């Protein structure tokens, strides 16, 4: 059906524009991307201005003046929001009919539209018509989404080591405190492994910084490949890594420590690269004050670091657990 200039709803709307200043002020309030005028006494009939259809990629002459035309293109969940607001606006004129909804463009893309309206009431206050305006806010929504993604990227950068893409010290500390809180609540053990690359300074000096960075990257990927999916691998600084092993007992931490050591030795041992591993295992007392989580988590890491010092002092390329448990 073509866009007939003599359509009765359009004719009635133009008459209202000449007679009612409030209608004109409503239209003038914003820049518009389409008008619509709805016969609430015969609700299948709704006049939509041509600009609305061109916004959605359609030839206006292909569209009929029916409410079903636009309702077939709006996202179903957004249609429900619009209908709920319409119902409330008809019951209470002070309730605004104003929402941002999504339509499917003819090419399959999403068009974001701010849809506002005002009920035209008879002398008894009964809504008999609905006048509305559309504003295309797609560009605004796309900008908001781009900013959201950028903020997410920045958040990830704040939590990730730029060389290895592992979690950094800050992120690891937050995750460790959460695991400590879980240990307090459920009385479950967890373990921490601090891993240091043996003789890294010598390697860096002899091979160069670029080779050193590549070696650290290889170590990080190896540790990730042998760690459990539930564990967290992070880079503390320089040539030092740390792994949080959730619900891992002392015995399980020893098995894991040896697995980390041997995996690096098998991959990089021919290049003279090995690692030393310091382990600590902990089950938090149930009566620990949550205000001490940060202090306790630092203590767990310190204990593993001291165990690492013991492994280094005992000849490197081994794991150690305080006070005296070491293994070649």
From TrEMBL:
InterPro entries: Diguanylate_Cyclase, GGDEF_dom, Nucleotide_cyclase, PAC, PAS, PAS-assoc_C, PAS-like_dom_sf, PAS_fold_3. The keyword DNA-binding does not apply. One of its GO terms (molecular function) is diguanylate cyclase activity. It comes from the Bacteria. It is an enzyme of class 2 (transferase). Residues 188-324 form the GGDEF domain. Its EC number is 2.7.7.65. This is diguanylate cyclase. SMART domains: GGDEF (SM00267), PAC (SM00086). The keyword Cell membrane does not apply. Residues 97-149 form the PAC domain. CDD domains: GGDEF, PAS. It catalyses: 2 GTP = 3',3'-c-di-GMP + 2 diphosphate. NCBIfam families: GGDEF (TIGR00254), sensory_box (TIGR00229). Keywords: Nucleotidyltransferase, Transferase.
